[in-house]
Input
Amino acid sequence: MSFYDTYLEYENFDTEGFLKEVKEPDVLGIIKKNKLNHHDFLALLSPAAANCLEEMAQRAQELSLQHFGKTVLLYTPLYLSNYCVNRCAYCSYNIDHDIKRKKLTYDEIEKEAQIIAETGLKHILLLTGESRIETPVSYLVEAVKIMKKYFDSIAIEIDPLEKEDYQRLIEAGVDGLTIYQEVYDEEVYKQVHLAGPKRNYHFRLDAPERACEANIHNVNIGALLGLNKWQHEAFMTGMHANYLQNKYNDVELSISLPRIRPHVGGFRDVYPVTDQDLVQVLLAFRIYLPYVAITMSTRERGSLRDHLIPLGVTKMSAGVTTEVGGHSDSDKGDSQFEISDTRSVEEMRKAILNKGYQPIFKNWMAI
Ligand code: SF4
Output
């Protein structure tokens, strides 16, 4: 039994028909409940719920304060390599794109780590394109050992691995995994993942669970909003998080809500997601899964990110570059996509304080 069985149960569910039937009084009743079921959650993604955003925001804020207080954890991504063997329609690193490729040497990794550590951040996310040849697990293990000298929490966002490989990385010092399914609809998944090992939908879908079985401390999942109808994708993401939370209740779960950003290549989001849609998804996640952390990245513009802090966001990136080697002056590799919020760590720290919240630089340290 894995989440794929739950996915199959809902594969042919008439989501649109269900959403049309939801009425505003239903939504107002649901947000008063202590525990929501799957259908309650789906109702919060309906057009009727879009007319109840104020009420949903009040409930989401109440739950966020109860479970997380007024805190926002800060972290930054560090891109180790932009070599990739996949053909994802929506990404600059796609093997077909003529971009400047680069993989950091161990000396360059150390230099980037030193520069980031000077900002005071203690949480780091290591990213690579997907290439077992350029960035094998042995390379990542060495990178993690370097990171351990500078950071208290090290997460990875890389290709899906077997449980034993996750164990190797956890032993080296990794405590978090970010892995986006990108799109939960299996047909659409095949359409946007044109070639490469990433076409294996099932192997990717089960990756968070393999990491949980390897005893990772935290897992962050999500769908890339814009690839498919957002109601369906948000619903499956919430169901996936709920499944993992119930089965691995010692793992700290997070959800991200990334929207497609400009990149090299002609793909544009097929199903636009407005700011209001994004807010509705955020509120629905918070009300359905009050204990789950919610991450908002620099894909979103600064004013919107600030506005979302009281509504349930608990983790934010800062001082971000998506270029390989982008923190130091060295020869850089091209970026994965354009970011929107370009603020430094210090600027983000002040912005969070201005909202009356506490920026957290460290909330976890492996012993
Ligand atoms: S999304 Fe990931 S796997 Fe796909 S092309 Fe970009 S880096 Fe490679």
Summary: Residues 63 and 240 are 20 Å apart (CA to CA).
